[in-house]
Amino acid sequence: MSLEEIIKEIDIFAVLEIDNANDAVRLAETLLEGGISAMELTLRTPAALDALQAILEEVPEMIAGVGTILTPEQVREVKKIGARFGVAPGLNRNVMKEAIKQELPFAPGVATPSDIESALELGYHTMKFFPAEPQGGLTYLNSMAAPYKFLGLQFIPLGGVNEENLRTYLESPLICAVGGSWIAKRDLIQNKNWAEIKQRALIASTIAKEVKEETA
To answer: Is 210 noted as a catalytic residue in this protein?
Structure first.
C-alpha cells in the first residue's frame, strides 16, 4: 500500500518514545482501546525496533510505523522488520531515495517552499509538516502551500499539536492525518499509566470522528 492508501485509514497516529520494549504490546492494545489504530515509533530510543517487532507480531491490527528515520540504513532496517510506513523530521534526499527503492511508504519533513519542491522532485505528495506550531501553524502552512494547491498536496502536522488545536488541523483540507505525541507521552509510558493514555486516545479519536462526520 502507498502512504496515501494507508492514510485513508488513519485520522491520528500516536507518536511514541518507548524505553522498554516490554511495554510495547500493552501500549498498542491501550491505544486501540482508545480508538487510535496507528502509531509512529520514533528511533530516539534503543528499544524502538524491538518494540516494533513485538507489536507487529502480537498486535497486527495496529498500523505500526517508524519515525525519526535519518539514514538509508535505517530505512532498510525498518522495512526488513515490517514497518507499515516511515516518517522523517527533515528532507534527506538519500533517505527519500532509499524509501522509494525499498517501497516503504514514507513522508519526508518539510518546513519551507524549497522543501516542498525538493520532495516533489522525487515524487512525494504527502509530507510531514514539522515543527507545525513553532513554524506558524495552519496560518503559515496555508501560505506556504498556496502555490502548490493545484497539485493536491497533503500534509501531516507534528510538533505542538494537541487536543486543543486538533480539531482545527483536522478541519483543514490540507491535512490528511495528524501526529500526536501528547496522547502517550514518554513519562506516561514509563509510569505505565495506561488509564491516562487510553483517556487521551479516546478524546483524540472522538474529536477526529466528529470532524469526519461533520465534513462527510
So the answer is: no
Separation between Cα atoms, residue 107 and residue 110, nearest integer Å: 9
Does the global pTM surpass 0.70?
yes
Superfamily designation of domain 3-215: Aldolase class I (3.20.20.70)
Q: What share of the chain is helix, strand, coil (3-state, %, to 5)?
A: 50, 15, 35
Active-site annotation holder among 40, 98, 185, 198: 40
Whether 40 is a known active-site residue: answer yes
- All structural domains of the chain with their residue ranges: 3-215
pLDDT digits (tens, 9 = 90+) for 107-162: 999 999 999 999 999 999 999 999 999 999 999 999 999 999 999 999 999 999 99
Contact 144, 132 (CB under 8 A): no
For residue 173 the three cell numbers come to 483540507
Q: What are the tens digits of pLDDT across the range 69-95? A: 999 999 999 999 999 999 999 999 999
For 124, phi then psi, to 5°, come to: -90, 130
Q: Give the dihedral sign, CA 14/31/96/19.
A: positive
Residues 62-74: b if buried by 16+ CB within 10 A, e if exposed: bbbbbbbbeebeb
Catalytic residue among 79, 128, 185, 198: 128
